[in-house]
Specification:
The structure holds four protein chains of four kinds. Chain A is an all-alpha fold. Chain A has two domains: 120 residues, Four Helix Bundle (Hemerythrin (Met), subunit A) (Up-down Bundle), CATH 1.20.120; 41 residues. Chain A is 76% helix and 0% strand. Chain A is built from seven helices and no strands. By secondary structure, chain B is mainly α. In chain B, 72% of the residues lie in helices and 4% in strands. Chain B contains 28 helices and two strands. The N and C termini of chain B lie far apart (134 Å). In chain C, 75% of the residues lie in helices and 0% in strands. Chain C has a domain of 61 residues: Helix Hairpins (Orthogonal Bundle), CATH 1.10.287. The radius of gyration of chain C is 18 Å and the shape is elongated. By secondary structure, chain D is mostly helical. Among the domains of chain D are: 194 residues, no CATH class; 74 residues, no CATH class. Chain D is globular and about 70 Å long. The C terminus of chain D is likely disordered. Classes of the chains: A mainly alpha, B mainly alpha, C mainly alpha, D mainly alpha. Chains in contact: A-B, A-C, A-D, B-C. The interface between B and C is medium-sized, with 11 and 13 residues.
Chain lengths: 166, 709, 104, 440
């Protein structure tokens, strides 16, 4: 049905472009595919009735973080990097281990599937933004402040790192 | 009677203050001042002090004889609190900054400020061409301050402050020409010798406060009465003796007189003021001030009398052969001081003070006149190189003649009265002492006139280049001479009929119980007023005016006048009539003459006995310091430290560091094994993380499996 | 019958897939920037889980945590890229296995 | 009609229509904005501007469009072809996507998201990728530098502009565009009056976001030929162009909605009725304006040199008359229709006014240097916007706690904000240090 269609669309888009992102030789292309993945994720958020998070995902992730990535990529982009080997010496064992990890988690999901309750569609407050803001500024006040301080520290650190003459 | 005015009595503390202020000005910023300003300030301040002293004196005399005492306590200087006296009683020690004016100190401040004022004026002329003008006057005013503190103090400790102050000033002024080695040596000598006496005096003060429980003069007699001390109590005797030691130091008595002749190195006004008129009489003043103690210590008084007598004779004999004009005067000063102590020793305190006063007049005059002479002959001091000056410097000659007559004891001049008083009391107490004093009087007349004749009469022996610019001194020097001359003439008359004694009586009242080795004559019949009532006793004393035995008085007077004229005649015969005789006499008794000429080798004796011993002690201590302290102590300690440090270094290197190195070696081995994990590749670490995750998950699966089955 | 949502398993599977791909990227790629981007991918997978479960439980806590995670992602990206810039300025390379100053 | 359409898709019909209308009309509008721009520029430079094509160049945009479509499409060698294709599409798509939440009128809105404003910001911020990827893909230094500059510029000024908007959000208390306009209607005041600083900050920020002078460094022809568009030509270039002007309209719409009262007519509280009727005098304003323009056109028509131009001018006048009639007629239709028509009219008027301000600024100010640009953004606008947000918050709290008059409270805080602004400006006169993120 409709929501299933939406979900499958976004999910397949996300996974496919994620794979592309990991395998591209050109960093810019990887970035673009990552952006696609993120946008697809945003779509999934929307499909999960999390409008606010949807917008936040687009503004922060796509519009902020990824712009930063692209920016830096353009600053440091080297044509020689296109001709290099893109995977390191431990690629086979690493890939195998990663797959094993995924398999384990998959097994865990399969085994523990019965644990989750029957997915009844609980009614969420129509004003998702107000709800999130309310939770964020009342119950999660301290974490919010800590996060803001984290951002401040990160900003200063980034400035110090990126300045020409440190 | 109406309450007398007490302004000056309330402000006696100002009297020392004026000289102190100007002294401070002089010594701190005097360099920039004009001489005229210096004169104005210093002489002015002394003049002010003199005015205040005069006012205080008058207001004191205005008071009824009984309570002629004014005390002004500024503040408690050393409130040290309670302590145990020797006999176990509790006393409260307090030394306050207080002034006390009674007839004795009134007389003293009059002498000090009066003579001091004259000598200041004289100095403005005498020192006019000297360098360090402001310094000289600064020292002089500082001396005035100290001397006034000394005579005005109301307790022993404050008196000691003045005592040390005058000592310091005398040191500074003797060494005024510090560029002359002899001068600075003389200063040091005076200072050191004084130290000995001062040590005794200080011990005396300690002992006083320990025995009597007070150091206030006003409380000494009461506490003596309270202590019920027997006559000749050893503690009291000890105190008296120690005080006397101090007095010998300050007043140049045997054995501590040696500094005074050398002190003549100082400028003549200084010799006049300090070493004739005031400072050297501090001892006399002090003994008089503490007479209450002495009267309980007959043996101490005996010592005082004997020492004084011997000093008088001894110094006179040395004065006979001196050729330095100032040295002669110095020895005469010593002998006159001996006279005073003789008086004190026989209990004639008033007579002693009386002689002190007259002596201040004529001896100050003598010194100043001598200074004028030296000034005239441009610095020459040897009387053998003078003579026939009487015509050239007439005024000086006249004044000096007056002074010489006065000291020789020719009536009716000052010296006659005072010396006669002393001889009278001495005769009544012991004939031997009288004999010595009598002889001394003769010798005094002799050598004083020898000095006079050699200086002013006979044919001139002055060098020629000096000859033709001999000149009279300026008025600033002559006026004081004349004033002092007048005083030397009339100064003795205050003693006629014992008025002086009556005035001093409240201070030097002779206690009834002083019976000892000598018979102290009571004014009036003995033992009559053994009453407790001081006033009645005083009235009786004042009532009794006439001396005990007029006939005896007359005889003694005649004897002393006779010996005086004999001395004068002998001097005339030897030094004007038969000028060749002295050398013959000298040759005839060569050894003795040489002995006397060399001042009985006393200085050499002291050198051999004390000074060199002290030097040896210093050398011994020095070698001890070098050898024992430095070598054995310091170097030994250093060597020991180095040895210990070597040992600890070995320990540190091999044991401590060794263990550290061992540990680090183990760590190194471990690290060598584990470093192969540390590839430096981030992704290796991530891989390890993943491996760890896989391991955990597998473990959980294992657990879950077991939980299920 | 109450309206049902898509079973959370789907979202779990999706996030698992993204997570695994991210891990592979982190482990195998040599380019530091791609490693960073893979990390972002992993965080993203986590976000999907959180939001899915917040939907399942019908409250917003999961979304709040997702927001926190995005914040951390931003901070991490800023600092990481700064480090990369500095490093690139010194070494002229972007390859992770040439950053071996810590090597023994 | 309702029989013809299955009820399931009923709610999707009108948005579809709106979308079609917007996509259809937007290029035209863009073209005529260009004409307007050239005319205004000419006016400000005492010239006539385009006069040949059509009366007073009224047909110039169509001519330009035709020319662009017919131009040859050049793709440089070893450019990244895929990116080169995609980039313009990205920017124009994102630009158009933003219209989805833009309320042209009470009803004229594709979708009223309750995160509408954020949605618009998000989507328009995605427009960066079009520029950056295009600049990168065309493999030219000019393009790359332009792209980097614009990326840095956009990222920096998005912050400032967003913070500027926050003040209006605080006042409205909602993210849905419709609610925001409604809030202004309820409070009876345009938010520009209570938050002027926020409006100012957003004005500057939006100029920078749309890469317009004096912030047009990405395409500073004197330095880097045409910035990221250097290698583009023909249709792709016109796409970029379209995207730029679409963005201009977007920011203008946002400003209009948040600060200028959206579709509300001036003095929404003022209900002065025509005597005897229920008609409000102010509602007659649009018709009168159009009638005035029509009369102007008719007066100009005879003076046109060529007959065809006479005709066109007369047609324009007729069009205006029609519009005036529509405005007047809508007064007697149902209130919804009246609201819609008038609302759209007022909205477009405000947007045009905002755009006129853009042009005005463009022709008035010289271009900034890049470090000056960055300094202005980071050192002046952002602190100012922050202080402004604090001020508005304070004002609201004062109003809620002690019932202060919001205007009074806002005045109090406005003073503080202006003080901070002066302080910042003063300390900004000192020479700046290293610019924060310089591309090269």
């Amino acid at each position: 049905m409709f929501s299933h269609t939406v979900f499958y669309f976004f999910a397949l888009l996300a996974v496919a472009s994620a794979i592309m992102m990991v395998t591209r030789r050109n960093i810019i292309h990887s970035a673009v595919y990552l952006i696609t993945t993120l946008l697809a994720t945003a779509g999934i958020f929307l499909q999960l009735d999390a409008e606010f998070l949807f917008v936040v995902q687009i503004i922060l992730y796509v519009g902020g973080i990824m712009v930063l990535f692209v920016f830096v990529i353009m600053l440091v982009n080297l044509d020689v990097s296109l001709r290099l080997v893109q995977f390191n010496h431990q690629r086979f064992v690493a890939g195998a281990l990663a797959l094993i990890l995924g398999g384990q988690v998959f097994i865990a999901f399969r085994v523990g599937r019965g644990v989750l309750p029957h997915p009844v569609l609980r009614s969420m407050s129509p004003k998702n933004t107000e709800a999130v803001g309310d939770a964020l500024f009342t119950h999660y006040m301290l974490p919010f402040e800590i996060a803001s301080i984290l951002l401040l520290v990160a900003m200063i650190g980034a400035v110090v790192m990126a300045k020409r003459r440190v | 009677m109406s309450a007398p005015l007490t302004y000056f009595l309330d402000h006696i503390w100002l009297i020392p203050l004026f000289p102190l202020a100007t002294a401070a000005v002089m010594l701190f910023c005097g360099r920039r001042l004009q001489n005229s300003v210096v004169n104005l300030l210093c002489v002015g301040s002394v003049f002010l002090s003199f005015l205040y002293s005069l006012g205080a004196f008058l207001q004191l005399t205005a008071m009824p004889a009984g309570e002629r005492i004014a005390t002004k306590i500024l503040f408690a200087w050393i409130p040290a609190g309670p302590y145990h006296m020797l006999d176990g009683r509790i006393a409260n020690f307090v030394a306050d900054w207080g002034f006390q004016l009674d007839p004795l100190s009134a007389v003293m401040i009059l002498i000090v400020t009066g003579v001091g004022l004259l000598i200041h004026v004289y100095s403005t002329g005498y020192m006019a061409h000297e360098g360090g003008y402001y310094r000289f006057f600064g020292y002089l005013n500082l001396f005035m301050f100290s001397m006034l503190m000394l005579v005005l103090a109301n307790n022993l400790l404050l008196l000691f402050v003045g005592w040390e102050g005058v000592g310091t000033c005398s040191y500074l002024l003797i060494g005024f020409y510090f560029h002359k080695k002899s001068a600075s040596d003389a200063g040091k000598k005076a200072f050191i010798v004084n130290r000995i006496g001062d040590a005794g005096f200080l011990l005396g003060i300690f002992l006083t406060s320990a025995v009597l429980g007070t150091i206030r003069f006003a409380e000494i007699s009461p506490s003596l009465a309270a202590g019920h001390f027997a006559i000749g109590d050893p503690r009291i005797t000890a105190i008296a003796f120690l005080f006397f030691v101090g007095a010998t130091g300050k007043s140049a008595q045997i054995p501590l007189y040696v500094w005074l002749p050398d002190a003549m190195e100082g400028p003549t006004p200084v010799s006049a003021l300090i070493h004739a008129a005031t400072m050297v009489t501090a001892g006399v003043y002090m003994v008089t001030r503490t007479n209450a103690i002495y009267q309980l210590a007959p043996s101490a008084m005996a010592i005082v009398a004997i020492i004084g007598a011997i000093t008088a004779l001894f110094a006179a004999s040395m004065g006979v052969v001196q050729n330095d004009i100032k040295k002669v005067l110095a020895y005469s000063t010593i002998s006159q001081l001996g006279y005073m102590f003789l008086a004190l020793g026989v209990g004639a305190f008033a007579a002693g003070i009386f002689h002190l006063m007259t002596h201040a007049f004529f001896k100050g005059l003598l010194f100043l006149a001598a200074g004028s002479v030296i000034h005239a002959v441009s610095g020459e001091q040897d009387i053998q190189k003078m003579g026939a000056l009487s015509g050239k410097i007439r005024k000086t000659y006249r004044t000096m003649l007056v002074a010489t007559l006065a000291i020789a004891g020719v009536p009716p001049l000052a010296g006659f009265f005072s010396k006669d008083e002393i001889l009278g009391h001495a005769f009544r107490s012991s004939h031997l002492l009288w004999l010595i004093g009598w002889l001394t009087a003769g010798m005094t007349a002799f050598y004083m006139f020898r000095l006079l004749f050699l200086t002013f009469h006979g044919q001139s022996r002055v060098d020629h280049e000096v000859e033709h610019h001999i000149h009279e001194s300026p008025n600033s020097m002559l006026v004081p001479l004349m004033i002092l001359a007048v005083l030397s003439v009339i100064g003795g008359w205050v003693g006629i009929g014992g008025r002086f004694e009556h005035f001093l009586a409240p201070v030097v009242r002779v206690q009834r119980h002083t019976e000892g080795f000598h018979r102290v004559p009571l004014i009036g019949q003995e033992g009559e007023f053994r009453s407790e009532d001081a006033r009645k006793e005083l009235e009786q004393e004042l009532g009794a005016t006439t001396p005990a035995a007029p006939s005896e008085e007359i005889i003694l007077m005649g004897a002393s006048v006779a010996i005086a004229f004999a001395g004068i005649g002998l001097a005339w015969f030897l030094y004007l009539k038969r000028t060749d005789l002295p050398d013959k006499i000298a040759k005839s008794l060569g050894g003795f003459y040489r002995l006397v000429c060399n001042k009985y080798y006393v200085d050499e004796l002291y050198d051999a006995l004390f000074v060199n011993r002290a030097k040896d002690l210093g050398l011994a201590l020095g070698s001890f310091d070098r050898n024992v302290i430095d070598d054995a102590g310091v170097n030994g300690a250093g060597w020991l430290t180095r040895f210990i440090s070597k040992v600890s270094m070995w320990w540190d290197t091999w044991i401590v560091d060794g263990s550290v190195r061992l540990g680090s070696f183990f760590v190194y081995c471990l690290g060598f094994v584990s470093k192969f994990l540390e590839t430096g590749y981030v992704q290796n670490y991530m891989l390890l993380i993943v491996v760890g995750l896989i391991g955990f998950l597998a473990y959980y699966f294992y657990l879950a499996h077991h939980v299920i089955h | 019958m109450a309206p049902t949502m898509i079973s959370p398993d789907y979202y779990l599977m999706l996030s698992l897939a993204l997570f695994t791909i991210g891990v592979i990227g982190v482990l195998t790629r040599r380019n530091v920037i791609i490693i960073l981007m893979s990390i972002e991918l992993i965080l993203n997978a986590v976000n999907i889980n959180l939001v899915a479960f917040s939907r399942l439980w019908g409250d917003v806590n999961g979304q709040v945590f997702a927001i926190f995670i995005i914040t951390d992602a931003a901070a991490e990206a800023a600092v990481g890229l700064g480090i990369i810039l500095a490093f690139f300025r010194n070494r002229e390379t972007l390859l992770a296995d040439e950053m071996d100053l810590l090597k023994w | 009609m309702s029989q013809l359409i299955p009820p399931a898709i009923i709610p999707y019909v009108m948005p579809l229509v709106y979308a079609v209308v917007i996509v259809a009309v937007l290029p035209l509008m863009a073209g005529y904005i260009v004409l307007l721009e050239r005319k205004v520029m000419a006016d400000m430079q005492a010239r006539l501007g385009p006069m040949r094509v059509g009366p007073h160049g009224l047909l110039q945009p169509i001519a330009d469009a035709v020319k662009l479509l017919l131009k040859e499409d050049i793709i440089p060698n070893d450019a990244d072809r895929f990116m080169f294709y995609v980039a313009p599409l990205v920017s124009v798509t994102m630009a158009l996507l933003a219209y989805a939440a833009m309320p042209f009128g009470p009803a004229f809105q594709i979708a009223d998201l309750n995160v509408g404003l954020l949605f618009i910001l998000a989507v328009s911020s995605l427009g960066i990728y079009g520029i950056v990827l295009g600049g990168w893909a065309s493999n030219s230094h000019y393009s790359l530098l332009g792209a980097l500059r614009s990326a840095a510029q956009l990222v920096s000024y998005e912050t400032a502009a967003g913070l500027g908007l926050v003040s209006a959000l605080l006042l409205a208390g909602s993210l849905s565009m419709k609610d925001i306009v409604q809030a202004q209607a309820d409070q009876g005041v345009w938010f520009i009056l209570v938050a002027p600083i926020g409006f100012f900050v957003y004005l500057v920020g939006s100029i920078a976001e749309t890469n317009r002078a004096p912030f047009d460094l990405p395409e500073a022809e004197s330095e880097l030929v045409a910035g990221y568009m250097t290698e583009y030509s023909g249709f792709r270039w016109s796409l970029y162009f379209l995207a730029e002007y679409a963005n201009m309209i977007i920011v203008a719409g946002i400003a209009t909605t948040l600060f200028l009262g959206g579709w509300l007519r001036p003095f929404p509280r003022l209900h002065q009725h025509l005597i005897g009727t229920s008609l409000e005098l102010l509602d007659a304003l649009p018709s009168l304006i159009f009638i005035a323009i029509a009369l102007y056109c008719f007066r100009l028509a005879p003076r046109q040199p060529v007959r065809i131009q006479k005709l066109v001018m007369a047609a324009a006048g007729g069009l205006c008359l029609l519009l005036a009639g529509a405005m007047a007629g809508s007064l007697f239709a149902s209130p919804a229709v009246m609201q819609g028509v008038h609302g759209g009219f007022w909205f477009m008027v405000k947007v045009m006014a905002y755009l006129y301000a853009f042009l005005w600024i463009r022709f008035t100010f010289p271009r900034y240097r890049f470090d000056q640009l960055m300094r202005l953004g980071w050192r002046f606008l952002i602190p100012l916007a922050l202080v402004n947000v604090m001020g508005v918050g304070t004002a609201i709290v004062l109003q809620q706690l002690w019932g202060w008059d919001p205007r009074g409270a806002e005045l109090v805080t406005l003073a503080a904000t202006i003080g901070v602004a002066l302080l910042l400006a003063h300390e900004d006169e000192k020479p700046a240090s290293q610019p924060l993120a310089e591309g090269e």
